[in-house]
From TrEMBL:
Coiled coil: none annotated. The keyword Transferase applies. Residues 52-228 form the Reverse transcriptase domain. CDD domains: RT_Bac_retron_II. Keywords: Magnesium, Metal-binding, Nucleotidyltransferase, RNA-directed DNA polymerase, Transferase. This is Reverse transcriptase (RNA-dependent DNA polymerase). GO terms for molecular function: metal ion binding; RNA binding; RNA-directed DNA polymerase activity. InterPro entries: Reverse_transcriptase_msDNA, RT_dom. Transmembrane segments: none annotated. It comes from Jannaschia rubra. Pfam families: RVT_1 (PF00078).
């Protein structure tokens, strides 16, 4: 999806200096009555266990449909703000392929994964963003914070959490960007995946970034940290081999298995789903290979 033409500086965001709750409810396309109803509701989130790509379970909390609609509106307003170049997700018009392509041709790569990112993004940091950065008054901050957080943190499952995870910690990301630039490295952030590349990525640079994360209440998963020098590397699901972007072998294998399954699969809903999966794999490869032309 191309980036929306309605992209502007943060101080042009509709939520910036939103001075009254009345105006806020109008911006969020809701009402004081609906807000009061949500406040009184006993269960606004439904726990769902999903499976990560590595097979591990992930608990998410899906918001009730009417709360979700409001959260989507908040996300929509914030997503219109022009993002920094290093932020690749959640950004309209940028993808995991863009994230990987930013590092093509580099000799060295360091891959970091932030542990339990959303659960460690606190309500107090969201309040800081709404109050200090967006300059909303306390009563408006209280409403926005309540609408976007659950039990003191950003809920994994809320459509507002991805973009708020950036803005609530934009000072942290600014520090990390400055560290990377000073070291002559390219930085990208794709949700909780942090990638550095360059002629070399020094250990002290990585430690400085980890210290910045720790200062703001985050840490990386040591077991998922990767260092590559002069070898192919998989960055957000895309293989980088010198200047070339490729589909990972595991994706080729998955596509092969789907094709074999389709050979003996009768017509019906299951076959339609399998065909859709196959088309998805093929479209992903087309998008990746198109970057090499």
């Amino acid at each position: 999806m191309p980036r929306s033409a309605k992209s502007y500086a943060l101080d042009q965001c509709a939520l910036y200096r939103c001075t009254t709750r009345k105006r806020l409810f109008r911006l969020l396309q809701t009402s004081p009555t609906k807000y009061a109803e949500l406040l009184a509701a006993p269960n606004l989130y439904r726990p769902i266990t999903k499976t990560k790509k590595n097979g591990e379970p992930r608990l998410v909390h899906a918001p009730r449909h009417d709360l979700k609609r409001i959260q989507k509106r908040i996300s929509e307003l914030l997503m219109r703000v022009t993002p920094p170049e290093f932020l690749k997700s959640p950004v309209r018009g940028r993808s995991n392929i863009d994230n990987a392509a930013a590092h093509r041709g580099a000799a060295a790569h360091r891959l970091l994964d932030i542990e339990d990112f959303y659960p460690n993004c606190t309500a107090s940091k969201a309040s800081w963003f709404f109050g200090t950065v967006l300059k909303c008054p306390p009563d408006v901050v209280a409403v926005l914070t309540w609408l976007t957080t659950r039990q003191g943190s950003l809920p994994q499952g809320s459509p507002a959490s991805p973009i708020l995870a950036y803005y609530a910690y934009q000072n942290m990301w600014g520090e990390i960007d400055a560290i990377s630039r000073a070291a002559g490295n390219t930085l990208t952030v794709y949700v909780d995946d942090v990638t550095l590349s360059g002629t070399m990525v020094r250990t002290e640079t990585v430690w400085a970034i980890k210290e910045a994360l720790a200062k703001h209440g985050h840490r990386t998963k040591e077991r998922k940290e990767e260092a590559h020098l002069g070898t192919p590397v998989v960055v957000t699901g895309v293989v980088l081999r010198d200047e070339v972007l490729l589909l990972p072998n595991v994706q080729h294998l998955k596509r092969h298995r789907v094709r074999k399954a389709l050979e003996r699969m009768p017509e019906g809903p299951e076959r339609e789903r399998a065909e859709a999966v196959l088309q998805g794999h093929e479209e992903t490869e087309r998008q990746i290979l198109a970057r090499n032309t």
